[in-house]
Design brief:
mainly alpha
């Protein structure tokens, strides 16, 4: 028989939760009875299913995601440029070629 687990702490503590807990206790008592009939089990399952559907989850507070909300506004920061631009790379390459050429000319003269 598969084991079913339900965290009742996630539901609002109201009449529906009390009713579900009561029916759950009755179901456990019913299942321990050696003379239980299939009709009684089917009815208890139907009652538990109805009671489970009536449970209401507790509300969870979600952070505000409104971008227009001034409380959530973060100051704009200028981020540093990462990577090199094509002009910088080409300039460094040209400078390197000129430097190597100048060093080569001094060696051979």
């Amino acid at each position: 028989m598969p084991h079913y687990s339900l965290d009742l702490n996630q539901y609002q503590d109201n009449g529906a939760l009390a009713n579900f807990k009561n029916l759950l206790a009755q179901a456990n008592t019913l299942l321990s009875n050696d003379n239980v009939t299939q009709k009684q089990i089917d009815q208890m399952l139907k009652d538990l299913t109805t009671a489970r559907a009536a449970l209401t989850l507790k509300e969870t507070k979600k952070p505000t995601t409104d971008k227009n909300n001034s409380n959530n506004a973060k100051p704009k920061q200028k981020l540093p440029q990462t990577g090199d631009s094509k002009q910088t790379v080409l300039g460094l390459l040209g400078f390197s070629i000129l430097t190597i050429g100048a060093i080569s000319l001094k060696k051979f003269n």
